[in-house]
Every structure is written in structure tokens, then in C-alpha cells.
Amino acid sequence: MDDNHNMSNDLRFEQEDKREDEDTMFGGSSIVDELSEYLTPAMTLSPSPQPSEDSERIPSASTTISEPPSPTPTPPLPASPVNRGDFDKSRTFSLKSSGSRVKIVNGVTFPDSPTAVLHQQKLKPASVSYCDYFWADVDEHTSGFDVLIQYHHHGKQMTKEMAEFFKERAALEDFYARGLQKLSESHFGDEEEGTLGESWKSLKHSYAQESQLHKAFANDVMKDVEKTLSSHRDQYKKEIKKMQSKVQSERKQLLSKYNNVGKAKQNLAEKLRDFESKKWAKNNRHEQEFADKAKRKSTMAGDELEKAMLQYNMEQDKWFEDTISLSLDLEQYDSDRVALVQTQLNKYLTLVDGLKLKLDTVHAIITDSVSKVNADVDRELFVKQRATGELRPTVLTSVLN
Fold first, then answer.
1. Is 135 helix (H, G, I), strand (E, B) or coil?
2. Which long-range contacts (CB under 8 A, 24 or more apart) does 70-75 make?
3. CB atoms < 10 A from the CB of 368, how many?
4. What are phi and psi of 149, to 5 degrees?
5. Helix or strand run (H / E) with residue 70
6. pLDDT digits (tens, 9 = 90+) for 170-225
7. What is the DSSP string of 251-305?
8. CA 153 – CA 333 distance, rounded (Å)
9. Smallest Cα–Cα separation from 166: which of 121, 210, 224?
10. Which of 7, 56, 287, 396 is a good FRET partner for 70, with 20 to 30 A between their CA atoms?
11. Are 74 and 90 in contact (CB under 8 A)?
């Protein structure tokens, strides 16, 4: 009798060992059945393929999780001072509909389908917006939001260089103005007389006038153009630092929550394997107690997995919402910068046009003066001022007189 009982136990254990060898962590049918028992009815588990290089980079149990088809209610966007334009608020935040696989990339959940993006509605469908095109990471150290931050800093650097350009332009204008003033005070041609002399003096005087105009133009370029562009380098500086710090912190939290999900899945798998090995051994009261205890631990592990997934999804929703809001803020900042530079360029062109008009007035005076130059008049004036006598010489006829 004992021999038969031992043979029966040996056969049962051999079958269990064989079943454990055939099952993966979550892939075996019995393990999946038991794991599904401790999750909510809406959640399903299925075996996952081997991860590729561009899918999961965080160690975790090889499990693909699908969510129910009903969408999670959408919380409202945080209040923000920027104009959201045609921003679509009717989006959902569920991982994916039931039956669709997902992949984890640096702690972020994405649909694992090459056609998913084709069926995804844009958040701002009427325009090209940052919030629709920068969700993927460039690498493990650079997120899509980091790319936006880098682009913003690049724009500020360009604005700084433009300010330096206009500073140099004003310096050249000031140097030119000082050169004109120096020429106007020189003594070149001061001894010229007549109408030509007056015209020459008018030309030199116009240089003094032009000098003042160019000096004023240089001052206006510095005050109205360069100063505004230079001040832009410090605009939104604190806001940008807060943005970057906030998103980076939330990504770290998200990765931590995902790691917790991986640990919870691993723990549940271990508890289910333990329960799987004990649930058949119910020959006496002690074995029944061990099986019941293993089942309770499995149930608790399932609850912990659900809790970890809930916390992960809440953290991802928070990061998702803030990334949208801050991306739109950056979009508005960059639009403001472009509008600012455009305004300053228009101011500069207005100053140039004003300078031309004033110079044309000065040049008109010089042109009028030059047009009055008359060699005959100058000759007459010279004769009146320097004539030595009108009596002309005559022929010598006699030396005896």
C-alpha cells in the first residue's frame, strides 16, 4: 500500500517538474490561468516575444499587458498662460485597447504596432505642433522633450548672435560718424573762393550733419534693436530650467514605477510557481495549509501587481499631461522669439529708411549748392577782389621822349 502511494507521489511530482520545465515565467497555460485569477477581469496576460534592442531596456518579467477597451476618463489639462489654439482635449490615456500589444521603451509604454500611429488622432490636428511629434527618445540620455529644450536654447543663441551683429553694425556706424565729423572739421579746401568755395563749404558742413545723423542712427540701433534682442537671452530662463527639471524628475519617477511593476510581476510569478507546486499536494492537513498559504500569497502578489500598474499608469498620465502642457509652452516661447526678431528687423529697416530720408534732405542741399557753381561769377569776383589795374601796356615808339 505504501509502495503504491509513493509511486503515485513520484509520478505526480515528475508530472509537475515536467510542467514547470515547459512553462515560462508567464507563458505556461496553468500559470497564466492562475495569474489571471488574481487580476481584475478587465486585465489580460499573454506571452511576450523576446525584446528587441529598441523595445524594453529595463529588466522585467517577459509579459505583455493589454487593457480593457473602455477608455479611461480624461482629466482636464492644467491651466497654462499660453494659447492652446486648436488643441484637442478629447484624448484618452489608456495604454491600449484589449488585444493590442504594448512595448516599454525607457519606462514609457507605446503601442507595439507599426500601424498604430496611422490610427492616432493628432492632439493639434489643424497645425504642426510640438506636442504631436516628440514622444520618442533619441537615446537613453536624450528624450524628445530634451530635443525641444535644445532647440529653444539654439534659438536663444541665434538671437544673441543677432544682437551682437547689430552691436557691430552700430559700432561701424558710430565709427563712420566720427570719421565724417573729423573730415568736416579739416582744413582741406578752406581757401577755395567764389561759388565753388561756397559749394565746398556746404559739402563739408553736410558731413557734420551726416555725422550727427549716423551717430543718432547708431544710438537708435543700440536702443531699439540690439538692447531688445540682448534682453531676450534672460527671458523665460527660470521657466525653462523648471520645465526641464520637472520633466526629467517625472521620467525618473516613471522609470521607478515601471521597475516596481517588473518586481511585482517577478514576485507574482514566484508565488504562483510556489502555489502551482503545492496545490496538488493535499494528502494531509499540513499540505492543505501550505497550499492555502501559497494561494493567499499569490493573491496578495496579484494585488501588489495591480497596485504597481495603477501607480505606474497614474505617473505616466501625469508625465504625459505635463509634457503636453510644457511642450505647448515651449512652442509659444519659440513663436514669441520669432515674432520678436521679426519686429526688431522691421524696426531696423524703419531706422534705415528714416536715415535715408534725412540724408536725402542733406544731399539735396549739397546738390543745390553744387548746381550754383559758376566759373564766370567766380572769375568776376576774383577780378573785383584781386585786380591789379586796367591800364594795358603799349608799344615802345621812341626812346628819346
1. coil
2. 70/42, 70/94, 72/317, 75/317, 75/321
3. 11
4. -65, -45
5. none
6. 999 999 999 999 999 999 999 998 999 999 999 999 999 999 999 999 999 999 99
7. HHHHHHHHHHHHHHHHHHHHHHHHHHHHTT--SSHHHHHHHHHHHHHHHHHHHHH
8. 11
9. 224
10. 56
11. yes
The pairs formed by 341-349 with CB atoms below 8 angstroms and a separation of 24 or more are: 341/159, 341/162, 341/229, 344/162, 344/166, 344/224, 344/225, 344/228, 344/229, 347/224, 347/225, 348/166, 348/221, 348/225
For residues 341 and 159, give the distance between their C-alpha atoms in angstroms, rounded to a whole number: 7
Candidates 172, 314, 177; CA nearest to 250 is 314
Helix, strand, or coil here: 367?
A: helix
Helix, strand, coil % (nearest 5) of the chain? 65, 5, 30
**Single-letter residue type at 379:** R
pLDDT tens-digit map of 91-143: 433 333 434 788 899 999 988 888 888 888 888 989 999 999 999 999 988 99
Check residue 108 and give left, alpha or beta (phi > 0: left; psi -120 to 50: alpha). Answer: beta
Cell of 289: 495549509
- pTM, to two decimals: 0.68
> How far apart, in whole angstroms, are the C-alpha atoms of residue 9 and residue 88?
63
